[in-house]
Design goal:
The protein is an alpha+beta fold. Among the domains are: 61 residues, no CATH class; 165 residues, Collagenase (Catalytic Domain) (3-Layer(aba) Sandwich), CATH 3.40.390.10; 56 residues, no CATH class. 20% of the residues lie in helices and 23% in strands. The strands form six sheets. It has a seven-stranded mixed sheet, sandwiched between helices. Strands 4-5-6 form a three-stranded antiparallel sheet, with no helix packed on it. 42% of the residues are buried. Bound molecules: zinc ion (ZN). Zinc ion (ZN) binds next to helix 6. InterPro entries: MetalloPept_cat_dom_sf. One of its GO terms (molecular function) is metallopeptidase activity. Keywords: Membrane, Transmembrane, Transmembrane helix.
């Protein structure tokens, strides 16, 4: 199982082996092999596809941050549970007369705190989900802030109308059984303010996956986790320079994959941005191993499209508007060579996928795609959720065969 996991991890840049040299080597390799990591932009019309400032065909990898992996420091909760008071049997002296007046059993001030108009008990408090901080009553009107109150792997949940402190698992399973033989995809939150809002949007991502033709067998090999951590930022900036060009928006890949791995045992990740760093019509950006998605794009097939890049290594089929530079490799779902007619499979698919065709334009204008439309083609009008056969078999199946 470890070996299987390592396969994807390796392809997603093995973190524990990562050094500046390795990253440079990998990225140079990606550039050399022309592994296109494209933008997916849901355009407003069928004809309009915005590519922002990206030169098509270039890998879309952000300028890498300091190659030191960000360590997720587990803060040991400072909270010490209130010791259960030992009950000592009160000896009632037989000779003492029972007083006729019993004292009124008011909760002593030592056991309460005042929160606005509410009097709350010792041990109760408030949760700030954004920072995962509990402000807890310690009695005598002392409210003390405690970060990571719920302990490792847990987060506090804010509750309307009561002051009991609820804790929940930080990794919420949204698809799959959680079995570790599966590919673990972790959705990371950026700029969300509540777990419920974030989770509603993750549900839309799961719905989009279920709308594709990946089917039960393939999706059954994937766990999708939502990491309840609203306190992280991954965005690095706009127009980040990369070798030979720039990327419209970039993020901290090392931080993202490290967070996904250390918190939820992730093999790969997808960052969901609450539309705070939108760049025109860019719906998402992907590299092999992870992707960055804007919330508005959840109304389009963008999420599974980006996974097509980041998990299955697929390339874009929409038009880059230019011919391929010499030496460019078509990729899994495109072909350099035409066939005698567009309804005849391109030579590379003729034997294995006899029912596909060979349609001109697959990213580059002089490459050929297997079907007229697919999810790796453009968004907007006529966008479809289905992957074509070469994408399913040579892309998805080829990676998912390492998982069960
Ligand atoms: Zn794309």
């Amino acid at each position: 199982m470890l070996a299987k996991k390592n396969y994807l991890r390796h392809k997603s840049f093995v973190l524990d082996e990562v050094g500046a040299t390795l990253i440079t080597t990998i990225f140079t390799f990606l550039a050399a092999t022309n592994l296109v990591i494209p933008l997916f932009t849901p355009p407003t019309t069928d004809q309009t596809v915005s590519y922002e400032s990206i030169t098509p065909g270039r890998y879309l990898i952000c300028s890498m941050p300091t190659p030191t992996p960000t360590l997720i420091v587990t803060i040991i909760p400072t909270f010490t549970p209130t010791p259960t008071p030992t009950l000592l049997p009160t000896e009632i002296p037989s000779s003492t007369p029972i007083p006729s007046i019993t004292p009124t059993p008011t909760v002593s001030l030592a056991e309460t705190c005042q929160v606005g108009a509410n009097t709350i008990k010792k041990g109760e408090g408030l949760c700030d989900e954004k920072s995962n901080t509990v402000t807890v009553c310690e009695g005598n009107n002392q409210m003390v802030q405690k970060q990571n109150f719920c302990g490792q792997g847990q987060v506090c949940l804010s509750q309307a109308g009561n002051f009991q402190i609820k804790c929940n698992a930080a990794c919420q399973l949204k698809l799959g059984t959680g079995a570790r033989t599966k590919a673990d995809l972790v959705v990371l939150a950026e700029d969300f303010n509540s777990y419920s809002d974030f989770l509603r949007n993750v549900d839309k991502e799961v719905a989009a996956l279920n709308q594709t033709n990946l089917g039960a067998a393939r999706l059954g090999k994937i766990n999708l986790w939502a990491l309840l951590d609203l306190n992280q930022t991954y965005f690095l900036g706009y127009n980040c320079p990369i070798t030979g060009g720039s990327v419209v928006a970039c993020w901290d890949h090392i931080k993202a994959i490290t967070t996904a791995m250390s918190s939820c045992g992730g093999d790969t990740y997808s960052i969901l941005n609450n539309d705070t760093h939108r760049v025109g019509s860019v719906g998402g950006i992907a590299i092999w191993g992870g992707n960055y998605l804007f919330k508005f794009a959840l109304d389009f097939p963008t999420f599974p499209h980006e996974l097509g890049h980041s998990m299955a290594g697929l390339v874009d089929e929409y038009s880059f508007g230019i011919a391929a530079p010499s030496g460019a490799i078509a990729g899994i779902n495109c072909s350099e060579k035409a066939s005698q007619s567009e309804t005849t499979p391109c030579p590379k698919w003729a034997t294995r996928f006899p029912s596909v065709g060979c349609y001109k334009r697959c990213g580059y204008t002089n490459f050929y795609r297997p079907t007229i439309r697919s999810i790796m083609d453009r968004g907007g009008t006529g966008a479809v959720y289905d992957f074509n056969e070469p994408s399913l078999v040579d892309g998805w199946d080829d990676i998912l065969k390492y998982f069960q």
